[in-house]
Amino acid sequence: MEFEKVILKQGKEKSVLRKHPWIFSGAVYGVSSELEDGQMVDVTTYNGAHLATGFYSNKGSIAIRVLTFADEVFNDDFWKNKLVAAWQLRQNLLNSNETNAFRLIHGEGDGIPGLIIDFYNNNFVIQAHSSGIYFNIRKIADAIKECFPNFCETIYCKSAQTLPNTGTDFHLFGTNNETIAIENNIQFHVNWVEGQKTGFFLDQRENRKLLQRYSHGKKVLNTFCYTGGFSIYAMQAGASLVTSVDISEKAVKLAAQNMDLNFANSNHQAIASDVFEFLKENKNKYEVIVLDPPAFAKNIKSKHTATQAYKRLNIAGLKTISKGGFLFTFSCSQVIDDVLFYNTIAAAAIEAGRKVRVLHKLSQGPDHPVNMFHPEGSYLKGLVLYIED
């Protein structure tokens, strides 16, 4: 099957030969005809040799998101094969008796750049990050229904935020707006219509579990708490006090609801407050602190500003935590790499005047796999620090 062609400049095929799934606009020499946004195209060398096939974009710096480096037939079986392979991997990664919420498709990590599919207790939420994916959204939904008939109550398209020109979000199948999902035998209200992203932050599952190791008998502060994931894990581990803080009144209400869903009685405080102000006013009270802010850097232009924001936040956290405490600190900004994040936290520790040891380096859970040839897919960075003095 042949498509219109995108021809690369001489020498610009090197990254494609290394199987990187993004081709930037600066690498393009020309096209065989006028192309529309979201159109499927073949990519060739300057001399005409076939390299890859993917979706073309005339918006942003990424011109082509590669679907395959081989010659493939792009019929309905393409989507079904990808979905089944991804499902089988998740069944090997997770215990379905303990967890019924996970990321089914993680873009490049599952061989479909621009596509996110999250699964919540027999409900699928699709998020398109490219026009090519969006134009195939109904084919993808049909493939989900065919592949997983016993696990599909609802399919919801939530792409309005990632692709603003597409209009409103909508149901592709079914009518559910929310469910109660289970993660490691902990229950969470998930509302994909009103919630952030697809309704829940699945990528922190393993890190929430790790937090339990350090929470028993401790006073735990969870900042930027959103739905209270870290808070509930800490309470399950036997924390003496858990405080959930978020500037959003709606978020702290969700955190409180999720706590009540799991525990009839708990020593939990849900506080709507600016995190920086709260940290300043509660020094030496908490033995475990979680700093899990939203992405401070949305793009490369905001990298420096974001780095300074991470530094300020971690200085505040380090000055607040009690001696002998444990700090869980994260960045979900893709443009902030591991080395920069580490160095930023080190600089914060120096400025805060604390003696710090690194206990763990953290990333996203295994249901958010990273394509070996696309290291950018490793977006979540985290450190667990022991504050010795």
Written description of the protein model:
It is a single chain. This protein has about 400 residues and is of the alpha/beta class. The chain has three domains: about 5-70, Archaeosine Trna-guanine Transglycosylase, Chain: A, domain 4; about 75-185, RNA methyltransferase domain (HRMD) like (Transcription Regulator spoIIAA, 2-Layer Sandwich); about 200-385, Vaccinia Virus protein VP39 (Rossmann fold, 3-Layer(aba) Sandwich), CATH 3.40.50. The chain contains ten helices and 20 strands. The strands form four sheets. The protein has a seven-stranded mixed beta sheet with strand order 16-15-14-17-18-20-19, sandwiched between helices. The longest helix is centred in the N-terminal third of the chain and has 18 residues, at about 75-95. The radius of gyration is 22 Å and the shape is globular. The relative contact order is 0.09.
Q: What amount of the residues lies in strands?
A: 25-35%
Please count the helical segments. Answer: 10
Oligomer: single chain
CATH architecture of the largest domain: 3-Layer(aba) Sandwich
**What letter string, H or E per element, gives the SSE order?**
EHEEEEEHEEEHHEEEEHEHEHEHEHEHEE
Structural class: alpha/beta
> How would you sum up the global shape?
globular
Mean pLDDT: 96
- How would you name the CATH homologous superfamily of the largest domain? Vaccinia Virus protein VP39
Broad CATH class of the largest domain: Alpha Beta
* CATH topology annotation of the largest domain: Rossmann fold
Q: Profile the largest sheet.
A: 7 strands, mixed
Q: Provide the spatial order of strands within the biggest beta sheet.
A: 16-15-14-17-18-20-19
Beginning-to-end CA distance, first to last residue: 65 Å
Rg, Cα atoms, Å: 22 Å
Structural domains: how many:
3
